[in-house]
Amino acid sequence: MREFEYRRSGDQDRSGPAHHSVVVIGAGPVGLSVAIDLAGRGIDTVLLDDDHSLSTGSRAICFAQRTLEIFDRLGCGAKMVEKGVSWSVGRVYLRDELVYSFDLLAEGGHRRPAFINLQQYYVEEYLFERARECTALEVRWSNRLIGITQRSAGVEIEIDTPEGPYRLACDYLVCADGSKSTARRLLGLEARGHTFRDRFLIADVRMKAPFPAERWFWFDPPFHPKQSALLHRQPDDVWRIDFQLGWDADPVAERAPERVIPRVRAMLGPEVEFELEWVSVYTFSCTRMERFTYDRVFFAGDAAHGVSPFGARGANGGVQDAENLAWKLAWVLKGQAGAALLLSYDTERIAATDENILNSTRSTDFITPKSPVSRTFRDATLSLARHHEFARTLVNSGRLSRPARYIDSALNTPDETGFTGPMLPGAPCVDAPLATAAGPGWLLEHLGHGFVLLVAADPAREDLLQGALDLLRRTEPDIEVLLVRPPGAGERGESAGVRVVEDSAGLIGSRYDLNPGTAYLIRPDQHVCARWRMLFAPAVSKAHARARALEETM
Hints:
By secondary structure, the protein is α+β, with helices and mostly antiparallel strands. Helices cover 27% and strands 27% of the residues.
């Protein structure tokens, strides 16, 4: 466990509260992500945590492709993928027979795997090391939030430290302080929902075993009858094992080694040597706050919502909260967007959370049927799934995390012409290989700093396209232009202020349904907000204003 010394801040020597643009509460994956993102966009940010160490135990371990792409943009994704165990194949068993298997990333041409398994303490460590490189960010350990006062022009908070309390003022406060959020309690707010009447044992086991890096899920296995079990590989020869225990299980007694070791031994067999690294027994709930935005205070991650662990939707959803919120705060603080932009954090992320809760609830209901009728349905579905494809879509051992699509967002400009495929306004951008003058690269490396207009080259109407681009650069200088030429075109680099790349594998064209002249306007969080079959500069300007929630367009 990595620990950090408390260090006195110069803000503690002031007679009045020192002011910072944004204060973030909680140095877990979500708080670190939003703080790094803000600092990378030049926003003066302070990150406070009441502890003095990174998390203990592996906790969250499954990080999805979209989350890894966000970590890439933050500057630490490569370290995580290098350390983590990449996987895309899952197997579902009924008793000791394989029902079916699936591959989450059957196609090539993606920079990142479908998932990696990586202990949360490693994720936090890599994020913290990146945070230390951000000149606009200061991390303060052993700084405990004890008071919040909202004012018309900002927020004042009181913090307790080993040397006593002090106060800070900020324009905006981001609360990412976990499921037992102190900030939520101080404001008299609640997260409401449903608690499931079941208990699960997590055992992180260190062993050397020949099992592949796949997700294995058992219903009613012979080593743990009438319950479920899950096996995942992590780095350092550590394996995550989940055992369903039932509601009547004693959560204290079940953590004892003399209860855990026989369960693990029954799963692995007598010949496998192992040792316990971390054990926990938990119940879980699907909950969320009524709103995530309260004037100038924002809630993110587990502080705002909670889901069951099946499907890896907790940490992945929280990092997407951070991604959604950071650019909006930065644009408003810099005067580049209307204040109404911040309200879209609520609408977009609540819709995403409700989708996660729905999927998580359905997973839990399937895994832990609460009546003889629901158990009969589940077992019949599993039996049919051995031989019938249609039944496999009904099997739910945890619908795995997928990136949110803000299809109904007020920031989107609706399509006016026909497109095919999934890249409609509100969708997160899909990666694809490309070539630049400097060599091979990836599409997402060129997105995420600001608003980007991706334009498919049109050799037949080069003059018309160039004229539209010239007009756009005069009227919307803040929009970067990325011109995509077809495979084999050869011309790359910089052309009259426009970045030129080659769609080297043809996958940008197919994934984005590009025709010559097609254009996409992409938000700073790598989500599509508008697209056209023909570039028309005034239409781009209007969509750009709408995506920034300027008053005249809302």
